[in-house]
Design brief:
Chain lengths: 194, 580
Amino acid sequence: MPNPVTNVLIVGVGGQGTLLASRILAQVARQLGHDVKVSEVHGMAQRGGSVVTQVRFGQRVYSPLIAQGEADVILAFEKLEALRWLPYLKAGGQVIINDQSVDPLPVLTGAAKYPEGIPEKIQEVVPNVVVLNATELAIQCGNVRAANVVLLGVLTRLLGFDETVCLQALAKTVPPIALAINEQAFKLGMAAVK
Amino acid sequence: MRELLLGNEAIARGAYEAGVTVATAYPGTPSTEIIEQITRYPEIYAEWAPNEKVALEVGIGASIGGARTLVAMKHVGVNVAADPLMTFAYTGVNGGLVLISADDPGMHSSQNEQDNRLYARFAKIPLLEPADSQEAKDFVKLAYIISEQFDTPVMVRVTTRLAHSQSLVELGEREKIKLKPYTKDAAKYVMLPGYARTRHVKVEERLLALAAYAEQTPLNRIEWGDRSVGIITSGVVYQYAREVMPTASFLKLGMTNPLPKKLITEFVQGVDRVYVVEELEPYLEEQIRSWGLKVTGKQVLPVVGEFNPELIAEKLLGQPPVEVYQVEENVPARPPVMCPGCPHRGVFYVLNKLKLKVTGDIGCYTLGALPPLNAIDTCICMGASIGTALGMEKARGREFAQGVVAVIGDSTFVHSGITPLIDVVYNRGTTTVIILDNGTTAMTGHQDHPGTGVTVDRQPTHQLDLVKLVEAIGVQRITVVDPFDLTRMESVVKEELAAAEPSVIIARRRCALLDKPADLKLRIDPEKCTGCRLCLRLGCPGLELRDKKVRINETICVGCQLCTQICRLNAFEKVGGQNA
């Protein structure tokens, strides 16, 4: 069955701003005339746990859920989470990895080891991988918390979205006081991939 | 105008457009956003009730008073509200009343997976199950019409996946609904046995009328496709099945109590093979089978856990799971943790250190059960910790009770901890209770409650005084402690456990996400740190092990200094210290 729906899985750690990123992306898809469904994670998983948000858009979207092996893009805010959710990527799909690690509790206490060389290991099996340090780019813009919007810039460039529409969606979603920094972060993200 | 709305936002919008004027709830994932969104509409009076039973009782009063009313709760909340619900089903309504039950298949943030469709059947009230945000809004509006037409409360059941998914919704105008006149009618609203007997007859008549309605309402619709396979389904699961089997015939049930027997029979007879695709209980399946119709459901589909499209494809179409990218690597789990600076951490550290048995409750502090704190023995439901501790004492005696403490949050204590504490005093228990008072309902996202002195729309109100309340219950040993003061915390816990009477310790400090506990930086002197890992027993994300020594993650640490207090080597230092 041909699948006319684009599936984006946004993964990270509670508190990293994945939810806001998914809302902006959904706003963009909507302005481009797509049917959109977004599935979010709330509650327990927000407290430093692994979080995943699913954005699906296309002419007609039924399920808000993305199946294993069906994500066109995995946007990972943290390396370990890219690894955890990799089975959701479809054959030939794209992975975007923020080169950042946030140690989970078992690693902090020495009960488990944080795997080494995650981007390289993913690159060995997946052809399309972009690795960048969005956190550093966000610091350049003046706020480390804008890393989510940097990553959104990368994503929208790779999806080929119109920059003006994206900036409009950003303005609709981000509080006015933080808009300038976020716009800059978005542009840095766009520029980070060609 | 079409807007992207969360299922819960759409429910709030539906209430607004339906002319609702009273809305009440107790927060609980995945239902919480409904009331939060309703506060955007000044036309609607909204409130946080202390618990779901009270919320429904307020709702019942508003309905009898003539207003269209919304009451929202999570699935386990309906257990708390079940008592008034069963009888409200008899009295019926004046202004329409919709009860939202937000169920949690997959237990994303709940202690069980109960299927509340059975409650609607139990209470003999109509049940609607929307499948996306648009339907959530439309069904809520229609539910008010059904409620008033058939003189009944209506349950609208959503699940986490719908409550927390966004999809496009066409917005409408608010209907002008007048408050219905109130007339005294004891035979309808006073459920003395004599009156209730006549109301039960009405309930049965109403069910028949509703069953006839179910046959012709557009809420239930057949979508004919390939006649070799038919799917009977409801709720968000419809979307999964539709995506997996785009050409099959569907009977999409939007109203699932009572069921349309004729429509279902017609559908079953119109296709070669029928699957009932439903999450959790075989709720539809068992009723359909009881009519002698042949359907397949739980023989092939699981009764446990949340569904998704791939599961349906695998079980119904026999599609093998797709081959996926995999990296040979041990991916460490990432469990949720108590936040850096969380006031509960110090309490659990002490309880763990003293090797106490701890009866737990529902809230952020339930995370105290996880390693490395491992400090909770039981967790059943809202308010159960205190009664459970008393039960342990009655079963195993006074000496055992000296090693047992009950922990309960401030919001949870107000919700349902007061009555068991009365029981402790009344029945001569010696239970030690720690009220973890962080000044909010933290787990669901910082909602106010009677103890915070603020209403849902941020207006100041009378602040419940926990000390005076506990005193009035008859507890004479009450101590307020700062949970960051580990030495005092430990000595108070020991002292109260030894006392041969009930005690309440109020461990009071605001949630770390509301107030930064301290504004100072800490560092660890690598010369002094021997890597003994004692501080790591706090389970604080601000401390990390690097090259066999502990280091402070400065971006996360808030300077609460719990670690400073337990380090035996004085390896922690304040940097550029401001006052703690």
